[in-house]
Amino acid sequence: TSVVVSWMPPDPPNGIITEYLVQYRRTDTSSYISLPRNTATELTRTITGLTLNTEFRIRIWASTVVGAGRFATLTFRTDAPPGNVMATVLSPRRIRVTWEPPMTIVTITGYTVVYNAVELTDSGMVPMITNTSTDINGLEEFVTYQITVITEFGGTIGPSNVAVAIRTWSDVPSGPPNTIALVGTDPAMLSVTYSRPVRSERNGALTGYVIRYTRVDTGELQVVNVSGDDITPPAISGLVAYTNYSVEVAAVNINGTGLFSDPVSGLSGQDVPNAPRLLGTVSINSSSVT
């Protein structure tokens, strides 16, 4: 039987970490076994050859050039992990996890469910569940999570299951495109560029954009639909030359249209001028007539 133990660097480290030392022993003995030292970047260690259904204790030190610091300890059992762990998506931000109790010779006091996002730095846990199911809420939309269940035996933990991966459902984009920029290009045209919403606000694969533009002096509103994930669409044409327009942009996925950006104003492109406007009368100075 083998286990994998992982850890995070000390905070604060009080210097530059140079290595880690991992030791372990059975709790019914007093002698620790030392493993080869980990480098400063190696934050996991696999311990093999352990006896099944047995309690062990691990301790881990970090070192700087000054020496080793205080150690962290963990007590665990080598019982079987929870069985038949399953995850079901209930909504874009909610997953239900179910499992079966492991085979063990000691009393189970609860379970801890751990979840980690693959694409984002979103993780957490649901501690000390006494039944064999739980709902995880407040997750990110359209993100793959890895789910593990750990058995608790009083102050001792057991092994977790092999991580179960599941992706939450997509949802309407919860944020607008960013960095909207307008440039008056060819006559009576306006070029619009933008960047995609931040990744955590896309909530799914983007399928298009909606550009909403308003002639400022009249309030006339027009809409342009952009297909595909195109952040440099063709310029808006058919505008009144050298006129101020207000533009807003929203992202679209299969669930619908998200939030519009704050309006950005810009002038459409210049064109050749119209004919001068005559005043309607001609003033003649009679003294100049011969």
Quick summary of this structure?
The chain is an all-beta fold. The chain has 1 helix and 23 strands.
Structural notes for this entry:
With 290 residues, the protein is mainly β. It has one helix and 23 strands. It has one helix at residues 199-202, and strands spanning 3-6, 19-26, 33-34, 38-39, 44-47, 55-64, 67-68, 72-77, 83-91, 94-100, 110-117, 123-129, 133-137, 144-153, 156-160, 164-167, 178-184, 190-195, 208-215, 221-227, 244-253, 256-260, 264-267. The strands form six sheets. Strands 2, 3, 4, 6, 7 and 8 form a six-stranded antiparallel β-sheet that branches. Strand 6 and strand 7 form a beta hairpin. The longest helix is centred in the C-terminal third of the chain and has 4 residues, at 199-202. The radius of gyration is 33 Å and the shape is elongated. The model has no long low-confidence stretch (mean pLDDT 92).
